[in-house]
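Email to the structure team, subject: Precorrin-6y methyltransferase model.

Hi all, the expression group asked for a predicted structure before they design truncation constructs. Nothing fancy, just the tokens so they can compare against earlier work. One-line instruction: predict Precorrin-6y methyltransferase, return tokens.
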Amino acid sequence: MTSGTDKHPWLTLVGLGEDGVLAPGGAEALAGADIVYGGARHLELTGGITAEKRTWPSPFATVFDDLAALRQKRVAVLATGDPMWFGIGSSLLKHFPAHELIVLPSPSAFQLAAARMGWALQETECLSVHGRPVDLLRASLYPGARILCLTSNADTPRQVADLLADEGYGRSRMTVLEHLGGTKERRVEGAAENWSAEVADFHTLALEVVADPGLRFRARTPGLADDAFRHDGKMTKQDIRAITLAELKPHPGALLWDVGAGCGSIAIEWLRAADRTRAIGLEPHFERRQMAAGNAAALGVPHLKLLDASAPEGLEDLPQPDAIFIGGGLTAPGVIEVCLAALGRGGRLVANAVTLESEAILLSAYQSHGGTLKKVSVHRASAIGGLTGWRPLMPVTQWSLTKS
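Reply from the structure team: attached below.
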């Protein structure tokens, strides 16, 4: 390994297993390092390191400045398993370019757990609630799912068991795989509905998801039933919501601005529809922000970011979106112009209107900018006396545009 410069790798990430076995090339990297970073457990497992040893600082975020000051040194970082799979590698790459790093992966916890369970990894959901809300699991539950999950500590399985029972998956099989690959490896199994086992902090959790009889399954395809959300009546209803999400076109990693978020239904369905999506909701009413936050947690996307703000002022200094939905505030001057200016090439703008005043604004935008303008009307069957008839919902005018 060469001495660090701006053009050559100076930082090596070395994966290791619970048994202390280093990734191929790891011993050479440690032998040639000036400084080795790692957790106390990692440094103890490796032993025999002649370089200066440093444990992670507290708060952890200060380590990036510390590392940046060491570019002229040879630095090695110890990490469990594969540093690039829910590991420190992704955090380091937000601060240092890839050409400054060498990554030496060991088998990940997911690989070891899949091998122990006899599961094909490509057919298994791999998630992490390590330092994250367990509510994230709610969006990944479906009958027959196999889930491998990184956890925070010994209490996480109990929290997950409670969540599964709450969601109608109490009969699901839970397997805690402790200290995978080490001398203290142990397997603990049980059903979520009566889970009471005491387990080690360091483990991987495997879930075989079984639905309770009669469960109303919530798919990730947009169009959740309206009663999946707590709301005050002012929300984008199920059929219109599905049409709206089809126009917004969520894709992995994309960011949505939800202007006038209300109870959060559009932003929540966006976050559920594709992996790694992000959403920022602007909602000036406190009660609706509370409802949106509660809905987001209950539907498995607690990372929805909600701002006490209105458009267009509240849109300043936000990260560039891939799509924008305007569900409220259309009559505020300049909202459409500010939103269009914020979008990059290929960005999508969708706006819905139910009042004549808002509809007039969309007609003007369509005449000025093009795109697609349509009116959607939904009728639902209901009882009329002893017979059945159609009851119309309020029609919605929708303007959508992809920026060229």
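The first strand starts at residue 11 and ends at 16. Residues 1-6 have pLDDT under 50 and may be disordered. Ping us if the truncation boundaries need rechecking.
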